[in-house]
Amino acid sequence: MDLIARISEHFSESAHLKLECMDTLAAPIGAAAQLMVDCLKADGKILACGNGGSAADAQHFSSELLNRFEKERPGLAGIALSTDSSTLTSIANDYAFEQIFSKQVRALGQKNDVLLAISTSGNSKNVIAAIEAAHECGLAVVALTGRDGGKIGELINGKDVHICVPAHSTARIQEVHLLTLHCICDGIDCLLLGVD
Protein backbone atom coordinates (compact mmCIF):
# COMPACT_ATOMS: atom_id res chain seq x y z
CA MET A 1 0.00 0.00 0.00
CA ASP A 2 1.27 3.46 -0.92
CA LEU A 3 0.12 5.54 2.04
CA ILE A 4 1.26 8.85 0.52
CA ALA A 5 -0.79 8.19 -2.63
CA ARG A 6 -3.80 7.27 -0.49
CA ILE A 7 -3.50 10.50 1.51
CA SER A 8 -3.15 12.49 -1.72
CA GLU A 9 -6.32 10.83 -3.01
CA HIS A 10 -8.23 11.95 0.12
CA PHE A 11 -7.09 15.54 -0.45
CA SER A 12 -8.08 15.35 -4.11
CA GLU A 13 -11.53 13.86 -3.41
CA SER A 14 -12.23 16.47 -0.74
CA ALA A 15 -11.17 19.38 -2.95
CA HIS A 16 -13.13 18.11 -5.96
CA LEU A 17 -16.32 17.59 -3.93
CA LYS A 18 -16.10 21.10 -2.47
CA LEU A 19 -15.70 22.60 -5.93
CA GLU A 20 -18.56 20.47 -7.30
CA CYS A 21 -20.84 21.69 -4.48
CA MET A 22 -19.89 25.35 -4.69
CA ASP A 23 -22.54 26.51 -7.18
CA THR A 24 -25.30 24.33 -5.73
CA LEU A 25 -24.73 25.12 -2.06
CA ALA A 26 -23.75 28.81 -2.18
CA ALA A 27 -27.36 30.06 -2.29
CA PRO A 28 -28.68 27.90 0.59
CA ILE A 29 -25.58 28.72 2.67
CA GLY A 30 -26.27 32.42 2.09
CA ALA A 31 -29.93 31.90 3.01
CA ALA A 32 -28.87 30.12 6.21
CA ALA A 33 -26.58 33.00 7.20
CA GLN A 34 -29.38 35.52 6.55
CA LEU A 35 -31.90 33.45 8.53
CA MET A 36 -29.51 33.27 11.48
CA VAL A 37 -28.75 37.01 11.34
CA ASP A 38 -32.49 37.77 11.35
CA CYS A 39 -32.82 35.45 14.36
CA LEU A 40 -29.97 37.12 16.25
CA LYS A 41 -31.25 40.64 15.47
CA ALA A 42 -34.63 39.62 16.92
CA ASP A 43 -32.89 38.57 20.18
CA GLY A 44 -33.14 34.92 19.24
CA LYS A 45 -30.53 32.21 19.62
CA ILE A 46 -29.23 29.34 17.57
CA LEU A 47 -29.60 25.84 19.00
CA ALA A 48 -27.34 23.26 17.34
CA CYS A 49 -27.44 19.47 17.44
CA GLY A 50 -25.96 16.37 15.86
CA ASN A 51 -24.36 13.03 16.75
CA GLY A 52 -20.69 12.01 16.76
CA GLY A 53 -18.73 14.17 14.33
CA SER A 54 -21.88 16.22 13.73
CA ALA A 55 -22.09 16.87 17.49
CA ALA A 56 -18.54 18.17 17.30
CA ASP A 57 -19.55 20.39 14.36
CA ALA A 58 -22.53 21.72 16.35
CA GLN A 59 -20.23 22.52 19.27
CA HIS A 60 -17.62 24.07 16.96
CA PHE A 61 -20.26 26.31 15.36
CA SER A 62 -21.67 27.41 18.72
CA SER A 63 -18.19 28.30 19.97
CA GLU A 64 -17.59 30.43 16.87
CA LEU A 65 -20.80 32.33 17.65
CA LEU A 66 -20.24 32.73 21.38
CA ASN A 67 -16.60 33.70 21.15
CA ARG A 68 -15.77 34.96 17.66
CA PHE A 69 -15.00 33.71 14.18
CA GLU A 70 -12.35 35.78 12.36
CA LYS A 71 -13.46 39.29 13.32
CA GLU A 72 -13.63 40.88 16.75
CA ARG A 73 -17.25 41.29 17.81
CA PRO A 74 -19.49 40.73 20.82
CA GLY A 75 -20.56 37.16 21.45
CA LEU A 76 -23.65 35.86 19.69
CA ALA A 77 -26.24 33.54 21.23
CA GLY A 78 -25.56 29.92 20.33
CA ILE A 79 -26.04 26.71 22.29
CA ALA A 80 -24.79 23.23 21.36
CA LEU A 81 -27.38 20.75 22.64
CA SER A 82 -24.86 17.89 22.66
CA THR A 83 -22.52 19.18 25.37
CA ASP A 84 -24.34 18.76 28.71
CA SER A 85 -23.64 15.16 29.71
CA SER A 86 -25.99 15.25 32.71
CA THR A 87 -28.89 16.46 30.59
CA LEU A 88 -28.16 14.01 27.77
CA THR A 89 -27.82 10.98 30.03
CA SER A 90 -30.84 11.82 32.18
CA ILE A 91 -33.10 12.21 29.14
CA ALA A 92 -31.71 9.05 27.50
CA ASN A 93 -32.10 7.10 30.74
CA ASP A 94 -35.52 8.41 31.83
CA TYR A 95 -37.13 8.64 28.38
CA ALA A 96 -35.27 7.64 25.22
CA PHE A 97 -32.10 8.53 23.34
CA GLU A 98 -34.30 9.79 20.50
CA GLN A 99 -35.50 12.61 22.78
CA ILE A 100 -32.11 14.00 23.91
CA PHE A 101 -32.38 17.01 21.61
CA SER A 102 -36.16 17.41 21.23
CA LYS A 103 -36.72 17.83 24.99
CA GLN A 104 -34.06 20.55 25.05
CA VAL A 105 -35.59 22.28 22.02
CA ARG A 106 -39.00 22.32 23.72
CA ALA A 107 -37.51 23.66 26.96
CA LEU A 108 -35.11 26.24 25.51
CA GLY A 109 -36.52 27.10 22.09
CA GLN A 110 -38.51 30.25 21.47
CA LYS A 111 -40.25 31.56 18.39
CA ASN A 112 -37.37 33.73 17.05
CA ASP A 113 -34.78 30.97 17.47
CA VAL A 114 -33.20 28.78 14.80
CA LEU A 115 -32.31 25.09 15.10
CA LEU A 116 -29.14 24.00 13.31
CA ALA A 117 -29.69 20.26 12.74
CA ILE A 118 -26.73 18.25 11.43
CA SER A 119 -26.92 14.66 10.15
CA THR A 120 -24.71 13.26 7.40
CA SER A 121 -27.28 10.56 6.55
CA GLY A 122 -30.33 12.76 7.06
CA ASN A 123 -31.85 9.91 9.06
CA SER A 124 -30.68 10.44 12.65
CA LYS A 125 -33.78 9.77 14.75
CA ASN A 126 -32.91 12.20 17.54
CA VAL A 127 -32.16 14.99 15.04
CA ILE A 128 -35.44 14.27 13.25
CA ALA A 129 -37.25 14.52 16.61
CA ALA A 130 -35.48 17.83 17.28
CA ILE A 131 -36.68 19.23 13.94
CA GLU A 132 -40.24 18.12 14.70
CA ALA A 133 -40.01 19.80 18.12
CA ALA A 134 -38.59 22.96 16.52
CA HIS A 135 -41.52 23.13 14.11
CA GLU A 136 -43.99 22.63 16.96
CA CYS A 137 -42.36 25.54 18.83
CA GLY A 138 -42.26 27.82 15.77
CA LEU A 139 -38.51 27.68 15.17
CA ALA A 140 -36.97 27.80 11.72
CA VAL A 141 -34.49 25.03 10.89
CA VAL A 142 -31.19 25.00 9.04
CA ALA A 143 -30.50 21.35 8.19
CA LEU A 144 -27.10 20.08 7.08
CA THR A 145 -27.35 16.63 5.54
CA GLY A 146 -25.69 14.47 2.92
CA ARG A 147 -26.53 11.80 0.35
CA ASP A 148 -30.18 12.39 -0.69
CA GLY A 149 -31.14 14.32 2.46
CA GLY A 150 -32.89 11.33 4.00
CA LYS A 151 -36.00 11.77 6.15
CA ILE A 152 -34.79 15.20 7.25
CA GLY A 153 -35.13 16.42 3.67
CA GLU A 154 -38.82 15.48 3.79
CA LEU A 155 -39.38 17.55 6.97
CA ILE A 156 -38.06 20.85 5.63
CA ASN A 157 -40.75 23.50 5.23
CA GLY A 158 -40.94 26.90 3.56
CA LYS A 159 -39.12 28.90 6.24
CA ASP A 160 -36.35 26.32 6.66
CA VAL A 161 -33.06 25.98 4.78
CA HIS A 162 -31.72 22.60 3.63
CA ILE A 163 -28.04 22.27 2.76
CA CYS A 164 -27.53 18.76 1.36
CA VAL A 165 -24.08 17.55 0.29
CA PRO A 166 -24.55 15.16 -2.67
CA ALA A 167 -21.97 12.57 -1.61
CA HIS A 168 -22.01 9.15 0.08
CA SER A 169 -18.78 9.18 2.09
CA THR A 170 -19.43 10.34 5.66
CA ALA A 171 -15.93 11.83 5.88
CA ARG A 172 -16.36 13.85 2.67
CA ILE A 173 -19.82 15.07 3.76
CA GLN A 174 -18.43 16.17 7.12
CA GLU A 175 -15.60 18.04 5.40
CA VAL A 176 -18.10 20.01 3.33
CA HIS A 177 -20.25 20.56 6.44
CA LEU A 178 -17.29 22.15 8.21
CA LEU A 179 -16.61 24.46 5.25
CA THR A 180 -20.34 25.27 5.16
CA LEU A 181 -20.34 26.21 8.84
CA HIS A 182 -17.31 28.45 8.34
CA CYS A 183 -19.07 30.11 5.40
CA ILE A 184 -22.16 30.68 7.56
CA CYS A 185 -20.00 32.19 10.33
CA ASP A 186 -18.33 34.49 7.82
CA GLY A 187 -21.70 35.40 6.32
CA ILE A 188 -23.12 36.26 9.75
CA ASP A 189 -20.13 38.48 10.51
CA CYS A 190 -20.31 40.21 7.13
CA LEU A 191 -24.04 40.85 7.44
CA LEU A 192 -23.70 42.17 10.99
CA LEU A 193 -20.41 44.04 10.71
CA GLY A 194 -19.96 44.76 7.01
CA VAL A 195 -17.10 43.65 4.77
CA ASP A 196 -13.57 45.02 5.12
Task: Give a short overview.
Helices cover 57% and strands 12% of the residues. The chain is of the alpha/beta class and 196 residues long.
What does this structure look like?
The protein is an alpha/beta fold and 196 residues long. The chain has helices at residues 3-41, 53-66, 85-94, 102-108, 125-136, 150-155, 170-193, and strands at 46-49, 78-80, 114-118, 140-146, 161-165. The protein has seven helices and five strands. The chain has a five-stranded parallel beta sheet, with helices on both faces.
End-to-end separation: 47 Å
Order of helices and strands: HEHEHHEHEHEH
Strand order of the largest sheet: 2-1-3-4-5
Tertiary shape: globular
Summing up helix and strand content along with how strands pair, one would put the structural category as: alpha/beta
The number of distinct structural domains comes to 1
Number of helices, counting only DSSP H or I runs of 4 residues or more: 7
**Share of helical residues:** 55-70%
Q: Going by CATH, what is the homologous superfamily?
A: Glucose-6-phosphate isomerase like protein, domain 1
Largest sheet: 5 strands, parallel
Query: For the residues shown, what is the average pLDDT?
Result: 97
Radius of gyration of CA atoms, rounded to a whole number: 17 Å
CATH architectural type? 3-Layer(aba) Sandwich
CATH topology, by name, is Rossmann fold
Q: So what's the CATH class?
A: Alpha Beta
Beta-strand segment tally: 5
Q: Unreliable runs, pLDDT <50, ≥5 residues?
A: none
| Residue fraction in strands | 5-15%
